[in-house]
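Checked the freezer inventory, then went back to the computational side. Two predictions to log before the end of the day. The first one is the construct we discussed on Monday; recording sequence and tokens without edits.
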Amino acid sequence: MISEQAAALDRAAPGAAPPCPTPRRAHRAPRASRALALALLGAGTAGGVLARADEPPRRAEVAAEPLEPAAARRERDVAYAAFRADFDAGRYSDALPHAERVVALSEALDAAGADLARALNNLGATQYRLGDFIAAEAAYGRALQLVEEQQGASSRRLLAPLQGLGLTYQAAGRHDAAAPLLERALAISRHADGLFNPQQRELLRPLVDSLVALGRWQDADREQLYDFRMSERQYGASDPRLLPALERLADWYSATGRNTQARAAWQRVLAISTDRRNSNLAAALAALRGIAETFRLDYQNGAEIVEENTQRAGQIGFHSDMGERDPFGRRVAPAGGEYRLESQGKDLLEAALKLAERAQPPAPRAVAAVLIDLGDWHLIAERPDRARPYLERAWSLLPDRASPAEGIAHPLGYPVQLLYRAPPAARRFRDQPIALVTEAAVIAEFTVTADGRVRDVQIVEGDASESQAAAFRTALGKAIYRPRFVDGQPVATEKVRLRETFRQMKR
């Protein structure tokens, strides 16, 4: 049985093993029947055990005497121990009836008590892991209501049901419902545990995902930076423990088109990871590859941002005839200008290759990853003859097929898009929330040749206009892919598909 201190945390989010209601020393007791549990609850009441669609009807007609409180507590301890063992081992189907049993006994003992809220959090966590989001929503929602009624709207014990309910909505794609719950939980966490408490990371990262899905780019950016500042405050500006947060920040900048800031973040990673006191080969390789990637993205997207507009009201979604704007309202050079692939990126990858080759013990996967990057670089520079030796050598260093245990596909076993510039019409209004726009889509089917070029483009599905489909076909014809490899050699791949969307503002 877990300690009193662990129970006091009262955190039963989907990603964590939850605490037991009122932990106490476990005693063996005969396990009561399902019918007895229903008798304790009252069959058909709102507080009953949640039914699943794939379960047979439960027998509620069998009469049974309620357990005495002491016996019910012992039985609950036994059920919780069984639940916890199955949950921790990842046996969520086996854990479910035990979680339901703990709910039943907790409600029988005190239908308005804190133990029931904890038990419902446990049940919600299990249902979440099983993908039963409707049932998880009900369990977490009921726990949330109980805690609010018992302790008010700002209690720290609201964190578990708020987080669980928010992640359940997020997993079901309901980001509009998830974001307010995660924001509320974040506010409670900062008020209860301090503005920079590290526990809030469990809330920050899923919140950023939902904010991005909703098109709330500035809010997402604020929370992403908050996450980094929190780590910087916790560890210091040059501590190696800061590296994961710096890498996340660099990836965030790259994902939002701010390659200059991404390069600066990767430079910090490189400086920390190559300090003789903090030598970290993996981080140094990630930094060199990350900086090179920013140069590739510059080539993909055209010119760097040329005008800041961060103080302008309504910057999200602001457009003018002076050029397109990124999700943060900053004007960028119009597409179609001169694109230049900086050779500095290739030089950094060559330095990364030398570093990986000197690793002790040998790191063939790290060497292969950099070789693939170098092959990709030459492919987008339209030099497939130079790319091929790098990719062939990478193939020789990797297993013939990915390990099923790792769940990772072979990186050379399928075509990978390296360069695609969407038509200007497809880039409009991408920063707008989905609720404010209408979308038309088009799907193309094509062949990726052995040298990574796109051929035989055919439009096979979609409701976009003819002009939009034609623009997509033209843009796709200029795309570059890394070809699929078979037995160490690049081969053509037919029937590759790509989907493009075109947005218009609702009237």
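The second is the one RB wanted added to the comparison set:
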Amino acid sequence: MANFCIIHIRSTLNNTILTATNLEKQTLAVKSLGNVAKKRGKRSVSNGALLTGEALSKFLVDKNFTKGQVLIKGFGSGRESAIQGLVSGGLQISEIIDLTRVPHNGCRPPKRRRI
């Protein structure tokens, strides 16, 4: 399984960061729109996540990684677009796991406003 990698997608409201690791948890590459595009674009849009996924996939295919497992964390707009970019770059995705934390009860809401 030397050609298997794990891709972590951290999708926030402001940016989408993709990190590729091998099976020993050693980091292979970290990509976001800031180090992919020449111009500073709007990082929060899903098109930026698509470009980032394609760039990471191209890097991994050049390093002879063909299959990958995707771990997603966050609720930003670039979740699905980053996976589409990975697939269109030539990487085969074996499974997708969502690790987004969901509060069971959450924080106490603020007091009602009295006017």
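For RB: The first helix runs from residue 46 to 62. The beta strands are 4-11, 16-21, 27-31, 67-74, 92-98. Let me know if you want it refolded.
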